[in-house]
Amino acid sequence: MKNKLIIDDTKFDFIAKAKPVYKTEPGLTREIIEEISYFKEEPDWMRELRLKSLQIFNEIHEPRFGVDVSNLDMSRIVAYIKPEALKATSWEDVPGEIKEVFEKLGIPEAERKALSGVGAQYDSEIVYRNIQRKMEKLGVIFLDMESAVRKYPDLVRRYFMKLVPPTDHKYAALHGAIWSGGTFLYVPANVEIPMPLQAYFLMSSPGMGQFEHTIIVAEEGSEVTFIEGCSAPRYNILNLHAGMVEIYVKRGAKVKYMTIQNWSKNTYNLNTKRAIVEEGGFMSWVSGSFGSGKTMLYPTTILKGKGASSESISITYAGEKQHLDTGSKMIHLAPHTSSVIQARSISMKGGWTFYRGLLKIGEKAEKSKATVSCTALMLDNESKSDTLPIMEIHNGEVDVGHEARVGRISEEQIFYLMTRGLSESEARSFIVKGFIEPVVKELPLEYAVELYKLIEMEIESSIG
């Protein structure tokens, strides 16, 4: 009997037609960094941050955990590619070749149906940015990062790479040196954005790196949901994604950050995401990781204020020639803080999923609560799944729970569902789709439907 799980990735089977107007030479040198900074007309402090980050990158060691990056040669990666497009606020003003790609991914349709605003990045630059007028009137700032650096330099400087400094790890330093694009989102106090904002990132060129930087500042009592989508056409040479997200959740604010990541398998995804939550604030991470050949991604929440809380809900899929090392980190620094981690993974056809998490409860975090649940589903005997949930508890007055399970679809489950009238194929599909349901139910309806289409899980069984 042969069981096949098919992920529909036909959206990668296109070659983007848009030609770049400018790009740097492959490699990573001081001259390239200065060239990028000059081209972007940056202030001195940003150029100096880039050059300091380059120095740190050259001095710091590779991560001693996670995926194998020995085949990643920075001398072959193009750090910056500018598409032939000005930043547009009307979809009609986006060049036809670029618009065609995003329309294939459903971006305009999603914007019309379910978004307060959207940004679209093509290679190294944002090519489209729009926000509803009523959000602007409330004082919401929703800009590409380059425009924010020029228009609000003091505000951006207060937050840029303060949560994740270049010294954090080698790829944080790399990001600091050659970041480009991304989003700056500022939500004033007590403003609630009723519908999600979205940013979509597309790598269209072979051998390039994409290094967008996203900052979200949710002031006291505000509320916002942000959706991030990622795609890339399939090429035969390596691409690199090393973006960064920094989120500041002020007193009593609520932020939900959703990621649907579906890079193609020639992509190394080495992303860094971190949030800090003040008193009574709430941070929610919802992540779906399905593409890329190799991924290292561990969204981190620092619960700094009394009563701060966070949740991290994720689903990871690894198929043939994929190694996805993902997880979550919760750091409790204040009393009465709480966190929930729920991680699910699916592996098959030799794919390898690895949950790597950290729960740290500090000495001053008394009366805190934390729950960690890791569940892995393997669909054949070739695949691998590992969990490494690290817990550091420095206070005895806390409530901590942990659960981990690794297993396969059992024949008993299949048999039971077949006695209820399902075919074997339907039974397997029913189980797998039920397995990812905790993530899907957290998405707005339109995006839940989109995610199901993205996964396109169809179980086929044949005897022979």
Descriptive report:
This protein is 23% helix and 38% strand. It has 464 residues and is of the alpha/beta class. The protein is globular. The protein has eleven helices and 28 strands. The protein starts with a strand and ends with a strand. The protein has one domain. The strands form four sheets. Strands 6, 7, 9, 10, 12, 13, 15, 16, 18, 19, 21, 22, 24 and 26 form a 14-stranded mixed β-sheet that branches. The protein has a ten-stranded mixed β-sheet with strand order 5-4-8-11-14-17-20-23-25-27. The chain has a two-stranded antiparallel ribbon with strand order 1-28. The model is unreliable at 1-15, 110-117, 122-129 and 456-464 (pLDDT under 50). The chain has helices at residues 30-39, 44-59, 96-104, 107-114, 133-137, 145-151, 153-159, 170-178, 411-419, 424-440, 445-455; strands at 2-6, 20-23, 81-83, 117-122, 125-131, 141-144, 182-187, 197-202, 209-210, 213-218, 223-231, 239-241, 244-249, 254-262, 267-270, 272-277, 282-289, 294-297, 300-303, 309-318, 323-326, 329-332, 338-347, 352-361, 369-378, 384-393, 399-408, 458-462.
